[in-house]
C-alpha cells in the first residue's frame, strides 16, 4: 500500500474502497469483502444512506479500528453551526465508532463556513482526525482557504483521464491540500474502459485499462477510492502496486484531458438550483416524518 501524509501528519492510505451507489442490501457484504481482500481505507457519506452498514461491516471484521482509515462526508442539509455537529454525532453512532479519520464537507453550497466551524471543533476534540472538502473548484477552494484559519487537508474531486483537474492540483499543492479522486474511472463514460491509449498501456504491463487509470492517479499523488460490488474487481483494483508507468506513458494519458466533467458542473447555476431544491425536498420529507411520529 502507498500512503500520503496529510498536513497534520496523519497518514492516509492512497487507495481505498468507496461505497457511493452501493445499496444498503449489498453494502455490509461489500465492505466485508473489501476488508478481507486487503482494503484499509473505506469512504462513505451521510448522503449515501449506508453508514450503518459500513459500521456493521467494520465491527464484524475483527480488524482493529486503528488499522482502518474511515471517511464520511457531511451533507448540505446539515451545514451550519450546531447542525453539523449533531449530524456528525449521528454518523458516529451509525458507524459504530468514537472517531472518524477524515470528515469532508460534501458540497460547496450552503453554510459551508458555519459547518466548517463545527468540524474544526470536532477535530480539536479528537472526534475527527482530519478535515477536508469535496467538490470545491479552484476558486471556491482558494476562497475557503483564505477566509478560514484552519485549512482543509483534503479536496475530493472528480479526477480521471478525461477530467484531470491539473490546475486545481497546482493550487492544492500551494495550500498543502492532498488531492483525492471520486469516480477515478469516470464510471466508464466516454468509453474510458475501452480507450485505445489506456488499453495499449495496460497490455504493455499485463494490466487492465482500469488498473492503468488507478496507477496513473497514484503516481500523480492523488488518493483514489474505486467502487465495485464484485470481489474479483476489488482485488484487481488493489493490484496496482507492482508496476509503474513511464514518463512517456504518463504524458500520453495527460494528453487525454478534455478539462470537462463527465457528469455535471458545480459552476452551472441550474445545478446549484437543483441542489437547493433537493435539500428543500429532503427537509420537507423530514418535517413530515416528524409530524407523523408526533401523532
From TrEMBL:
InterPro entries: AKR (IPR020471), Aldo/ket_reductase_CS (IPR018170), NAD(P)_OxRdtase_dom_sf (IPR036812), NADP_OxRdtase_dom (IPR023210)
Keyword rRNA-binding: no
PROSITE patterns recorded: ALDOKETO_REDUCTASE_1, ALDOKETO_REDUCTASE_2, ALDOKETO_REDUCTASE_3
Source domain of life: Bacteria
Annotated ranges, domain NADP-dependent oxidoreductase: 20-257
Site for Lowers pKa of active site Tyr, residues: 73
Coiled coil: none
Chain residues that bind substrate: 106
Record keyword NADP present: yes
Residue positions of the active site: 48
Keywords, in A-Z order: NADP, Oxidoreductase
GO molecular function: oxidoreductase activity, acting on the CH-OH group of donors, NAD or NADP as acceptor
Family: Belongs to the aldo/keto reductase family.
Protein name according to UniProt: 2,5-diketo-D-gluconic acid reductase
Amino acid at each position: 500500500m502507498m500512503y500520503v501524509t496529510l498536513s497534520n501528519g496523519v497518514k492516509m492510505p492512497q487507495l481505498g474502497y468507496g461505497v457511493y451507489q452501493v445499496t444498503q442490501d449489498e453494502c455490509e457484504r461489500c465492505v466485508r469483502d473489501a476488508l478481507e481482500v486487503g482494503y484499509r481505507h473505506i469512504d462513505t457519506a451521510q448522503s449515501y444512506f449506508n453508514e450503518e452498514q459500513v459500521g456493521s461491516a467494520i465491527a464484524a471484521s475483527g480488524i482493529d479500528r486503528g488499522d482502518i482509515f474511515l471517511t464520511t462526508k457531511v451533507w448540505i442539509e446539515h451545514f451550519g453551526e450546531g447542525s453539523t455537529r449533531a449530524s456528525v454525532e449521528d454518523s458516529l453512532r451509525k458507524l459504530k465508532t468514537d472517531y472518524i479519520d477524515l470528515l469532508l464537507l460534501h458540497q460547496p453550497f450552503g453554510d459551508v463556513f458555519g459547518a466548517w466551524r463545527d468540524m474544526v471543533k470536532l477535530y480539536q476534540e479528537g472526534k475527527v482526525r482530519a478535515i477536508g472538502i469535496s467538490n470545491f473548484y479552484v476558486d471556491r477552494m482558494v476562497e475557503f482557504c483564505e477566509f478560514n484559519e484552519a485549512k482543509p487537508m483534503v479536496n475530493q474531486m472528480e479526477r480521471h483521464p478525461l477530467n484531470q483537474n491539473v490546475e486545481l492540483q497546482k493550487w492544492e499543492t500551494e495550500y498543502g491540500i492532498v488531492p483525492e479522486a471520486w469516480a477515478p474511472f469516470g464510471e466508464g463514460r466516454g468509453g474510458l474502459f475501452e480507450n485505445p491509449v489506456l488499453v495499449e498501456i495496460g497490455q504493455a504491463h499485463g494490466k487492465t485499462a482500469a488498473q492503468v487509470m488507478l496507477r496513473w492517479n497514484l503516481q500523480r499523488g492523488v488518493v483514489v477510492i474505486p467502487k465495485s460490488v464484485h470481489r474479483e474487481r476489488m482485488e484487481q483494483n488493489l493490484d496496482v502496486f507492482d508496476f509503474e508507468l513511464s514518463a512517456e506513458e504518463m504524458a500520453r494519458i495527460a494528453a487525454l484531458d478534455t478539462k470537462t466533467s463527465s457528469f455535471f458542473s458545480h459552476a452551472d447555476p441550474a445545478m446549484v438550483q437543483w441542489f437547493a431544491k433537493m435539500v428543500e425536498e429532503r427537509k420537507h420529507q423530514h418535517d413530515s416524518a416528524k409530524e407523523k411520529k408526533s401523532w
